[in-house]
Every structure is written in structure tokens, then in C-alpha cells.
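Render alcohol dehydrogenase (NADP(+)) in 3D.
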Amino acid sequence: MTTVAAYAAPAAKAPLERTTIERRAVGEFDVLIDIKFAGICHSDIHQAREGWGKATFPMVPGHEIAGVVSEVGPGVTKYAVGDRVGVGCMVDSCRECDNCRAGLQQYCAEGPVWTYNAVGKDGEPTYGGYSEKIVVDENYVVRIPDGLSLDVAAPLLCAGITTYSPLKHFGVGPGKKVAVVGLGGLGHMGVKIAHAMGAEVTVLSQSLRKKDDGLRLGADHYRATSDPQTFEDLRGTFDVVLNTVSAPLDFAAYLSLLRTEGAMVNVGLPEEPVRIELSAIFGNRRVLTSSNIGGIPETQEMLDFCAEHGLGAEIELIGADRINEAYERVLNSDVRYRFVIDTATI
């Protein structure tokens, strides 16, 4: 066991504070990672404040982890000391179900072991990336290409794969029209990735406040959803509507923007129930669906894609003593577009 410094929420809705946690000894197939940077995802806030239901405390959030391998177990073949690596939203799964065998570990039949706020196969709670080090089985670690600096790569382990996976699954590429709802931590990566895939990209945001940013990041068009004319002008336009916001929407209005057989994919998860009118998808065989991160092979594919196209997250680097401030700013949409913790300050 190794004692490391971390930032944890001691109870639901309590401010995070500096503490220490125990990391397991490096096993035969384990990798010990010196964490260099950890992104702050809105999911961290949902869970630390029990917005998605009962959670386990103390909680060390963080599932956007970038660092350097400092030790490997004797059976490890994929990584060596000094390698630049990342860890995303999960650190294990059953490995035996059809989904795990297909590289879709995020849909494990038994449920994946999440990076934090979960229980590992050893019966111990999992702790995330707001810490100095983490021990992870090599099969749930990915390699960060040399073309990506670790700080801007960290958010790709959630925000990047969460948007890349559905865009790829629904065939986004040249000739396709994509709308990205919301220009935040997820949305800004959705714009970058859809643009790099060759699609025509429109941002749908409440106002035009971030229009210049949206166009700079790769959007071809930027429309305000507060203007009813937007929904009239864009009716039947898009092949894919990627909804990145974690708030209830008028789904009928957004579904009306789809072409026949188009798909609205939700990657934001509201804390409250949402209302859906089935009549909105009748008649045009429109799809209303969701997508949950991506499997380990696809996460590596996403990182390689981002390196090839020079895509990193837009970040604001902070010290660990500003985590609580950052949480409030995320809730107020006051970040462009992802806070990243310099873990040397923990």
C-alpha cells in the first residue's frame, strides 16, 4: 500500500479538502501512474453533490487523468516506466461478457468499475484523479501520443471520448450535418472532433455570447436557441444532433431539426426526469438515443485521432486549492472550456 495526497469530498455537498488515501500495492498486471493533470468534469460535481443519487464518501473525484508510468508489475507488457498514459472513467469490468469481449467495456453486463465512487474487485472503494498517484490494471490504461501535451490531453479521457464515440457510431464525416447543443466542456470537443471528421457543424447555444469561440473551434454556423426562428430555419436539417447539456430540453423542438432517420444523441445526463413526446419521432424514423463514453480500444483510437489532427481541450490550469472555486464556476458556465488541476499542487 502507498499513502498519497488527494482532494476529497468528505460528505455530500461538502467542500473538497486535502487528505490522504491508500493506493494498493502494484500487482502483477498493474501500472503505477504519477498523475500530472486531472480534468474537472461536470460529472464530478453531480456525484460529489449526490445529484445522480446516493454516493460513497469520502469521495476523490476525477476521471480525466494524464500522467507518467513510474512502476509496472512483473506481468505488464503494454507499458514501461516513463510512458505517457491516461485513465478515463473506468478502471475494470468483468472482461467476459459479450460487450467486454467486443471492446465495449463501458457497457459491461455486470457494470464497469468506475474510476471513483465505486467498489473495486478487491472490495475497496475506488478513488479518482484528484490525487498524486493511481494504480490501474494495464488493460484499462491508454497511451497518450507524443503529439498531445498532458494538460490538454487529460480532458480527452472523458470529454473527448464521450463526443467522439457517438459521432463515429452515427457515421459523421464529409457530407454530414451535425448540430452540437451547448458549447461547454463536452460541446467544445464535439465541435472540434466533428469538424475534424469533415462534417458541417452548427452550434446551438442559448445565446450568441460564445459565437466567436465556436467559429474559432471549427463550427460553420452558430445559432441561438433562445430565438424561436432558429428552430423554424433549421427544421429537418441535421443528420446528427449531439446534445451535451445536463439540463432538460424541449426534445420535440430539437428532434424537429433532424432529417428523416437522423439521430439525436444525448451525452449530458440531467439530475431530474425529462419529458419526451413520442409523437416527435413518429413519421420520420428519427432516433432519440444516448451514448456513454467509449470502450478502451475506442478511447485509444480517439487519442490517436486527436493527436493526428492537433486536437486538445481548451483548458484553464488551476492549483488544487481552487477546486471548490472551479466547481462553482462550472455551475455558472464560467470556464472556457475545461478546468484542469495541476496535481503537483496537491
